[in-house]
């Protein structure tokens, strides 16, 4: 699967769940123990507000704190839709994945940044589905690609506070269950 195809599928997976959130579910818990459904959607919305600026070469200092705090306002779904649409356009801009972007980890190849965003969308689509009691099954090709990438990087992430420690699952577990377990969630 090509990088942008995976990004688009992951974006669609998360978007589908955002559109399933009922009014009373915004304060529900998620597998991300410190985050409610609203916090989780706010996190992804903020990340996707950053993306167009970073992909155009902005530094972290130039972006500053403009996306700190609640970026959802009174229309969480609308805020997500706008951020996602602008992010998708930015990632699809000709040459967007050829350069580097500034991230908290330093100057990062844009293709790696796209992969990180794809992974984040994928695992958080599962988190959001669990938080609202929706179907958590995701595109199998996407899950396989994200699992392969995460498995090769997980050692670098341990101790950074990015994910909880991996959870043991049976060898016979599905790729999706192995992915979420690898990223510290109980399938």
UniProtKB/TrEMBL annotation:
It comes from the Bacteria. Residues 8-129 form the Mycothiol-dependent maleylpyruvate isomerase metal-binding domain. Signal peptide: none annotated. Transmembrane segments: none annotated. This is TIGR03086 family protein. It comes from Actinomadura alba. The lineage of its organism: Bacteria, Bacillati, Actinomycetota, Actinomycetes, Streptosporangiales.
